[in-house]
Amino acid sequence: MTSVAATRRRLALSRFWADFRKHRAGMIGLGILVVAVVLALVAPLFISEDVTSVVRGTGEKWAPPSLSEPFGTDESGRSILLMVWWGSRTSLLIGFLAALLSIVIGLVVGVAAGHFRGWLGGALMRVTDWFLVLPSLVTALVLAAILGGSTFTIIMAIGITTWPSTARLIRAQTLSVEARPYIERSKALGAGHWHITTRHVLPNVAPLLLASTTLEVASAIVTESTLAFLGASANKTSWGTMLRGSYDYGAATQGAWWYILIPGLAILAVVMAFTLVGRALEAVLNPRLRRAA
Amino acid sequence: MTTPLEAAEPAVAQAAGPGDDRSTGRGTLQYALSKAGGALFSIAMVIVGTFFLFRLLPGDPVRNLAQGRNMTPAQLDLERRRLGLDKPLIDQFFDFVGDTLRLDLGTSYEYKRPVLDLIGERLGPTLLLAGTGLVIAVSLGIWQGARAGWRHGSRFDRFSTGASLVLWSVPTFWLGLLLMMVFGVGIGPIPGLFPFRGIESVDAPDGFAYLLDVASHMVLPCLTLVAVVYAQYLLVMRSSLLEEVSQDYVTVARAKGLTDDDVRRRHAMPNALLPTVTLVFMRVGFVVGGAVTVETIYTWPGLGQLFYEAVRVPDFTLMQGTFMLITVAVILMNTLADVVYHVLDPRVRAA
């Protein structure tokens, strides 16, 4: 029985991969992501946190891009290239973990709200709707300001303010899955809440979740950089804090375009890559979109 | 920027979905009343939530408020009594709710003035900036989205979709910094074209020239705000027009011999417009986030900047007051959108 299911899943997976490969934009995005993640992971092998230290700047202050400093230097002579490289670790880490937190809350609340129809589902939807109307950036800023700046609190602040849209999506999918006859069969055979939600609902919402996670990471990275720019940072070098520095030290009036351009382009590239992959995933996984395309 | 792109579409689908169980078989008035009740409940939750959130602050609230200024124990005690912090939590809670309902938002430590006065001063510039930005973004987004959706797959469509995807991925503040550098400070041989600090020049003239001065200060903040928010209106207008293109009535309109432009403007657009306009109000929280960022970059003396300063100091009374005000405003806008949509769209009403 298990092996039949396993073969079927393997087949579905290879079909999915074949479909995904047809999306050129999605493949480009995936390529960028793989490169970015690998670079962030191997960074400690080549450089250390020293590159972000203000007293160990290696070059001239405000040096424009040259052969020795390909992307120029900042107000204390630190290399922008190395800082962007090191900063990718914080930006990506917060992006992934905040998205994960948001998705997990959204999944649990969404499945529960869709599965338990009574007062519990109603109450959960009320809470979700309430969180949905809160202006997320403003709320995240307040949370970060109150809880204090650390990697953990920034992740919490982003996760807590972004889960409701996932919860709504998952609830809708759960409702549509639970309307199918095999759920009724399963109930007739004595399946409990746990069995139905984990064995039947979860595998059916998982593909949707994958696409939505990808998009969620993209928006979490943007939110992290915005929070860092507005002063709520984890006190570690990230692309957002670099841009904050460029603003504080007046890079625009100094004409130090490289200081503003490079970290922003890094954010743009990674966020675009996530968005492209997410949209390709949606196109592959959603048959309705596939027909339209 | 803080919510995935696709979240916009479920929001519309949800508003457009006739299956909203709360509205079945009831009149519009009843619907409006139930929505208003929901809004009041949400606002009450915001007040309760704010109270407990700001009590989560680690450490002594009096010391937090004083931001580490040196105070004698007697002064601390006096301050504690003045703020009512010597009372039990439940009494503090009722005091807080009562004060908030009377619109007494406390006194800012940084400015030594009532929070409500500060908010009142900053409201005008924000409404001016966000209002102008929103009007431009909505009209541009609807116009371009309708054209892109009508000629689905054309070069214009691909360009529009691509451009909005890029704008979507760009963090607001980075775009603001770039625009400030290029058009504010000037780059290379190009001189700066527009002012990028504040709302008026130090030596601002009177009369009509003053309006021009403010307008020139508004160019860059407005441009940034528009660039970031208009992408979502474009995409939603495009997708909702796409749904109309294949409808029978469009074919009929064409068969009547109407020109292509007439079919689009007189028949398809009005139907596609409704979800988009609802979205404008539904996602007003997103615009608020954009406004905070834009006002911070260009030091625009609005509510967003006031909030940013409160976070930066940190001035918790001010932060609490602006947070509640912004949130309540967003809830009211959302509810209004919901009810107006219900009144305007017979498809929802009939359900």
TrEMBL record, chain A:
Chief subcellular location: membrane
Tell me what topology the record assigns in the membrane: Multi-pass membrane protein
Q: Where are the transmembrane segments?
A: 25-47, 92-116, 137-160, 256-281
**SUPFAM superfamilies in the record, alphabetically?**
MetI-like (SSF161098)
UniProt keywords, alphabetically? Cell membrane, Membrane, Transmembrane, Transmembrane helix, Transport
The cross-references to CDD domains, in alphabetical order and at most eight, read:
TM_PBP2
Give the record's GO biological process terms.
transmembrane transport
InterPro entries reported for this sequence: BP-dependent_transpt_permease (IPR050366), MetI-like (IPR000515), MetI-like_sf (IPR035906), OppC_N (IPR025966)
- Annotated compartments: Cell membrane
Q: Which residues form the ABC transmembrane type-1 domain?
A: 88-278
Q: Could you tell me the superkingdom of the organism this chain comes from?
A: Bacteria
Which Pfam families does this entry report, sorted A to Z?
Answer: BPD_transp_1, OppC_N
Gene Ontology cellular-component annotations: plasma membrane
Family the entry assigns = Belongs to the binding-protein-dependent transport system permease family.
**Full protein name:** ABC transporter permease
Its source organism is: Nonomuraea turkmeniaca
Lineage in the entry? Bacteria, Bacillati, Actinomycetota, Actinomycetes, Streptosporangiales
